[in-house]
Amino acid sequence: MHAYRTHTAGALRASDAGSTVRLSGWVHAKRDHGGLLFIDLRDHYGLTQCVFAAGSPAFAAADAVRPESVITVTGQVVPREAGTVNPKLPTGEIELKVADLVVQSAAEVLPMQVAGDEKFPEDIRLRYRFIDLRRDKLHRNMVLRAKVIASIRQRMIAAGFIEYQTPILTASSPEGARDFLVPARMHPGKFYALPQAPQQFKQLLMVAGFDRYFQIAPCFRDEASRADRSPGEFYQLDFEMSYVTQEDVFATIEPVIAGVFREFAEGRAVTEGAFPRIPYDTAMLEFGSDKPDLRNPIRIADVTAQFAGSGFGLFARIAASGGVVRAIPAPGAGSHPRSFFDKLNDWAKAEGAGGLGYIVYDAEGPKGPIARNLEPDRAEAIRVACGLKPGDAVFFAAGKRDEAAKFAGAVRTRLGEELGLTEKNAFRFCWITDFPMYELNEETHLIDFSHNPFSMPQGGLEALNGQDPLTIKAFQYDIVCNGIELSSGAIRNHRPDIMLRAFEIAGYKAEDVEARFGGMLNAFRYGAPPHGGSAPGIDRMVMLLADEPNIREVILFPLNQQGEDLMMGAPAEITPARLKELSLKIDLPPAKPRASGH
What is the Cα 520 distance to its own chain's centre? Predict the structure, then answer.
């Protein structure tokens, strides 16, 4: 018999009754029923109930062993009595009558329990992540993640892609976040950067003639944590294709993404057919966001014209000063009590808005404070613009264009939840397309890139030379699912002349572009194919499939919100000798003065 196990803890069934077997695993839970002691033995594969009779040789050892100790048990598989069968467990029809127990590793008193659903502080969970990962839900999340990555690999290879590995030690590149820097010992005063993304390398692979590249790529960004973004590092399905249009990219990656989601959806609906294409300007108008949640059927409408010059002075003044008024329909809300509207008004104030005006439409016409000051024909025009019927209501967001769009989007999300309109158990995908190539920097009032600087402008060199930069669109696109951005991508700018002009508009001199992107720019001078790609986030995909609101629940060993690894003690100070070897000196900021007490 094997030294540790003949079966895993999830393998035994009723057909094994009568067999002598050996199992190894962790003591998940113990129950003392007087003359009998029960231990639930757990390993990666499942859980088996073990029973120890009082007076048996193994009873005393079982009684003394602590939860989460690692043990090996040998005994006979017996059927459970009819009333004790557990239909929730695959092994629930049997139990192991233990004759021998060996403690392989005794556990000390636990800082957190593994069995049960008790919640523990995040710092405890991260400090003892190796224990946290034993818990069923987190363990399943990590297995799901591995299976998702394996599925992605198979689907990408089937689609004609080949996986290549790009460098981890590279040069700094402006990807929109801070780099993690690595001192170069053999080149004093110089630093490598960890890649924010393999952007330039994957484009160079296209120039090198590899045609279809992909990689489950680690990316490193020195940025703050969010619920949907892990600080430090993350993984993405990085891919690039040669001789493709934007539609070619869409048609290639949609079956991969949708296929993976269908494989692991467990009954949840997934977008059928081609993902909807929504231009950026439409998304900002109708959803108030470039990350729209299509499970919510509400569509925002522009009603600035209906309020311009109207009797409702506040919105009329906003319209006259160049602002906008957005209408957010609320189907069926007209039947709700006044408290429903008051609660939403309080919520809006808490969000920093002045309030949340509304009109209710019933069989007699429009009602509410705004309706009393608005001409009937204008109220009717708003009803028509929003497609409202008796029993519906409409809320309003007004102000500067971007501010009004953002608030209208928040109202839309809130109404979808409050009115029960947002679809449950579904994954709804879309592409956001036609992003602006440039935007006006609010602080400097200078033109800057709004998205990826390596994207091809729509209209090419002619557009760059002849159009107002703020009107130029780019061949840039995002994949969005349920209001979460999964990836950004683009058809790339593969022409040196177009690239230099694009950067010139954003204030970069030719010599600066050559200095910062010389490797890629030089490569383009030796024959570069048109190419494009994208990079859906692995962590976010798994987060959606696992139905987890926090991305740290789908990452094996995440950093905390402050970017610290509490388990391994990183980041950590290094010795003066090592600093000297790296030609570095530490210049810490002055300590903040402590508040004096009285």
Answer: 30
Interior CA angle at 411 toward 547 and 395, to 5°? 145
pLDDT in tens, 208-247: 999 999 999 999 999 877 777 788 899 999 999 999 999 9
Residue 597 has pLDDT above 60, yes or no: no
CA 151 to each of CA 144, 155, 300, 534, 546: distance values in angstroms, whole numbers, following the listed order: 10, 6, 38, 18, 15
CB neighbour class for 514 (10 Å; exposed up to 12, middle 13-18, buried from 19) = middle
pLDDT on residue 176: 62
Beta strand spans in 292-425 (E) = 301-302, 324-330, 358-362, 365-367, 393-399
The neighbouring-strand residues paired with 217 are: 236
Looking at the predicted structure, is the pLDDT value of residue 364 above 80?
A: yes
pLDDT at 475 over 80: yes
DSSP type of residue 115: S
Tens of pLDDT, residue by residue over 91-130, are 999 999 999 999 999 999 999 999 999 999 999 999 999 9
Q: Identify the CA nearest to 25 among candidates 44, 11, 52, 6.
A: 44
SS3 state at 226: strand
Residue with tokens 């363990």: 139
**Cα(301)–Cα(244) distance, rounded to whole angstroms?**
35
219 in helix, strand or coil? strand
Q: How far is CA 41 from the centre of its chain?
A: 35
